[in-house]
Amino acid sequence: MGDMSKMEVKTSLLDNMIGVGDMVLLEPLTEKSFIENLRKRFNHNEIYTYIGSVVISINPYRSLPIYTPDKVEEYRNRNFYELSPHIYALADEAYRSLRDQDKDQCILITGESGAGKTEASKLVMSYVAAVCGKGAEVNQVKEQLLQSNPVLEAFGNAKTVRNDNSSRFGKYMDIEFDFKGDPLGGVISNYLLEKSRVVKQPRGERNFHIFYQLLSGASEDMLKKLKLERDFSKYNYLSLDSATVTGVDDASCFRTVKNAMQIVGFMDDETQSVLELVGAVLKLGNIEFKPESRVNEVDESRVKDKNELKEICELLGIDQSVLERAFSFRTVEAKQEKVSTTLNVAQAYYARDALAKNLYSRLFTWLVNRINESIKAQTKKRKKVMGVLDIYGFEIFEENSFEQFIINYCNEKLQQIFIELTLKEEQEEYIREGIEWTHIEYFNNSVICDLIENNTNGIMAMLDEECLRPGTVTDSTFLEKLNQICADHQHFESRMSKSSKFLNDHSLPHNCFRIQHYAGKVLYHVDGFVDKNNDLLYRDLSQAMWKANHSLIKSLFPDGNPAKINLKRPPTAGSQFKASVATLMKNLQTKNPNYIRCIKPNDQKASHIFTDSLVCHQVRYLGLMENVRVRRAGYAFRQPYEACLERYKMLCKQTWPHWRGQARDGVEVLLKDLQIPAEEYSYGRSKIFIRNPRTLFSLEEQRKRRLHGLATLIQKIFRGWKARTHFLLMKSSQVTVAAWYRRYAQQKKYKKTKSSAVIVQSFIRGWKARKILRELKYQKRCKEAVTTIGAYWHGTQARRELRCLKEEARNRRAVTVIWASWQGTKARRELKRLKEEARCKHAVDVIWAYWLGLKVRREYRKFFRAHAGKRIYEFTIQRIIQKYFLELKNKMPSMSPCDKTWPARPYLFLDSTHKELRRIFHLWTCKKYRGQFTDQKKAIYKEKLEASEIFKDKKALYPSSVGQPFQGDYLEINKNPRYQKLNSLVEEKIIFADIVNKINRANGKGAQRIFLLTKNKFMLADQKSGHQVKSIVPLAELTSVSMSAQSDGFFALRVKEGTTAAAKGDFLLNSERIIEIITKLHRAGLDLTKEKIQIEITDEFLVQFKQDKVCVKFIQSNPKNGTMASCKRKNNRLLEVTVPSP
Ligand SMILES: Nc1ncnc2c1ncn2[C@@H]1O[C@H](COP(=O)(O)OP(=O)(O)O)[C@@H](O)[C@H]1O
Ligand SMILES: [Mg+2]
């Protein structure tokens, strides 16, 4: 049962419907049925009805239990059509589309005064506050946003005949959210407060709530401070016939307001200042004037009772005389001239009221700004915005003046935006979904807007023109002007207009004009239009206020600052309002609109009364029927494919219980299966459009029936499933229990067997181990006994031996010691003798030397003086020479023997020495240089020297070889494993080994050979195999070597005729290292035979090849033909070698 009730919560707009929840589904659609549907729903407490996505709200005038937190939860995150119509559904839709689709939203609430707009706006705000993010900071923002309402309502709302809590100002609030949908803050814009109410209220209405709230709710103490009395009747500005409103406790409201101000962030002294101003306004109304006749018969006004004036001045910190003067004189400034005129009594009253109105309206604007400061978002991040517009509703009073004109103009503009956006959106949806759409006629109120706001001949432009015109301007001149200009307009009516249509219309007084608004005809009295539009405050008064010693009031009148006198007129009230409405409209157009259209069910503010005619009138002018028609013109109902399939899928076998394909295909199959005629629906891109509500109802009917069947089916299946599950559970439990028991029994048996086996096993193992241990212990003991005995025996033996050896050594040492000490004694004796001898000889020498010295000194003493000059000379010379040597030492040239430099000679007399020193130094450096040479280096240089002797200036190749060291064994025969075999064939040391080219005599081409030279022979071996020896020639058999004088490497080795080597003939070879080869050959030959091998350097020579002699000729060629010398056979007798010329 519990499950069932839960399921019921998810009702649809279409479930348990009273009348029709969405007017689009109304059938038949007539005005009568429309009203009937509204009434039926209203009587069942269903105050909300949809037209598509527009919510119609009828004021119930009593509290309904449909705004509880439970309801909020119910509507949260649900689809618009899922539940019965509610303002929460609209708020949820707007909030989610703001949060999830990043679309700025605005909620436009329209309807006439008392229709419930303000309540609706509060409901939207409280819903959004309830569903958006939580957290301390967010909650504070929310609280501040919500609490701004009571403050603004206290100061800006009043009881009117239409509404006990009528907003007397327009309000547009932007709530700002971050990307998560948490509120960040808000901005409130206010539109023209109806300030005339401050000084005068129509019959049956009240002044702004705050006055009554202050007087009823303030403590005695505070009243005393504000110099106020609790009695309403003491104040001229408070109308008495309706001072209390039934069901409203002003005193408790005052506490609410004060509390709200605190939450919003007003400081205590700010609140106090505000209340002081409110008190001052009340008291201003009590100032009265009396005429005082003056000599020139002009009535001058005087303040009757100065006590009230004094109190005001005390309250606001104003100099009493200044204010008093401001009420009696008026200063007009024109072209630097100040003219002061006196005020008569009527003008004084006018000035007083103007001051009161201005003071109050400026205070109100200040309040809005102050609240904005508190609630403004603290971040500069990008914000999403939801605007809630709650503007004063359309008003028709008995007497309508400028304020009603302005209010109704504003409503006219809102109606315009509704028409434009609703129709546009509808049209756009059809186009978006690819559905055909035909235009629907509706009344467009743009003509009325034009009548009022047109810049050239609109009523507002006329009024402004009249206000600015020089000369006498009165309300009647303004009306005359209207009569001239607007007479032809079809929505303008006036008795005096040119068209005589209204000449006899007695419902149209002479001082009035009438406008046919979209919501009905309104008769406006022109009295006060000019004044209210001008909104003049005498400068003396604003200056008096600016002089106040009260910071709030001073800040409200910056225009009173004499330093900032502005002679330009301020913009008129009308043009200001027009401009701000235009900005508002532009702002609204950028946002996604959501409409709430409020309807007033009766004029008595009574619950349960539904006056058909009144509702009918509103339905008409709000254009609701057109709205429905437009909605139905194409299709009465639309739903995304997914939602439609979900709701009706049980009606078709293919789609129940699951449709696997696209939702659209599913819906197609479904509708075909249900045999709904094709003209009844149309497929959009994402939605199904159903033309006739009846079709939808039949679908609903079928669904309801099907649901019963399905319930039975579900029950059946569920019961079967339950029984089966229960059985399966029992079965599987049984199996589990059995398995567990078997396992347990087996486990027990196994454990017992196992423990017995372990015991037996351990006994046997113990016994075996003990036996082995005994055996091992016995063996160990035997081994230890043997070792001990052996050790004792060896010890005895060793000690005996040692004793013998020690004895022997002792005897040998004694002999040595005795011998040594004998030798020592002998030596010492000898030494003593020798020393004695030497001493005697030395003494003789010393004595002789002394004697000689003495003799010489005695002999030479007489010569000493004679030789002094020579000595000095010698000394000088010596000094010079010393200096010369020291200097020379510092100027020494380098140690290179090639360095021929030598310092200049300083003294002529040292010439020969200088030359000699130079020669010695050269020889010495040469010696040093030679000293560096090792034998190895010497050999290398010797070889190089030899090469120079052989080749220098003879062979062109020679100079390039000088820098290259002669390495000898280039192939590293004894190291390289490739030549291991070849190395073993040669016994002697290898002097030279390299690859050379052996020239083939047949064609002059070269073949690579290894050329080896040892100290007595040279060999040629095959390069490819690396070891096959082709020829061996002893050096003794080599007679001569031939080569060219050019830079090529060709050379011929001639062999002695008649030897074994000669059998093959001479060798013609080619090698880059020719210089080294020949030098080494020459040297080896010389070492071996002491005979020089003959070396022939010529550009043409003969070579013996076996039998024939061939001439080898060297010619120079162009270097372009190549850098290598090449050999070519020219004929039988000629080999030609071309050598590139250098
Ligand atoms: N949804 C509602 N539930 C209960 N009472 C309402 C509701 N809407 C309006 N009222 C009543 O109607 C009065 C006027 O509504 P209000 O919103 O101030 O009208 P408006 O702003 O359109 O002039 C409210 O003071 C309240 O008593
Ligand atoms: Mg309101």
Report on this model:
With 1142 residues, the protein is an alpha+beta fold. Helix content is 50%, strand content 16%. The protein is built from 32 helices and 31 strands. A hairpin with a 2-residue loop joins strand 14 and strand 15 (520-525). Helix 4 (87-101) packs across helix 5 (117-131), helix 7 packs across helix 9 and helix 14 runs antiparallel to helix 15 (446-453). The two termini are 121 Å apart.
Secondary structure: elements and pairs:
Blueprint: H1 2-9, H2 31-43, E1 48-51, E2 54-58, H3 69-75, H4 87-101, E3 105-110, H5 117-131, H6 136-156, E4 157-158, E5 166-167, E6 170-177, E7 183-191, H7 209-217, H8 220-225, H9 250-264, H10 268-284, E8 289-293, E9 299-303, H11 306-316, H12 320-328, E10 329-334, E11 337-342, H13 345-375, E12 384-390, H14 402-433, H15 446-453, H16 459-468, H17 475-485, E13 492-494, E14 512-517, E15 520-525, H18 529-534, H19 539-546, H20 551-556, H21 573-589, E16 592-599, H22 612-621, H23 624-634, E17 637-640, H24 641-648, H25 663-673, E18 681-683, E19 687-690, H26 693-860, H27 868-890, H28 911-932, H29 935-951, H30 958-962, H31 980-985, E20 990-999, E21 1006-1014, E22 1017-1022, E23 1029-1034, E24 1038-1043, E25 1050-1055, E26 1067-1070, H32 1074-1089, E27 1094-1097, E28 1100-1105, E29 1108-1117, E30 1126-1131, E31 1134-1140
Parallel strand pairs: 2-16, 3-12, 3-16, 24-27, 29-31
Antiparallel strand pairs: 1-2, 4-5, 6-7, 6-12, 8-9, 10-11, 13-14, 14-15, 17-19, 18-19, 20-21, 20-26, 21-22, 22-23, 24-25, 25-26, 28-29, 30-31
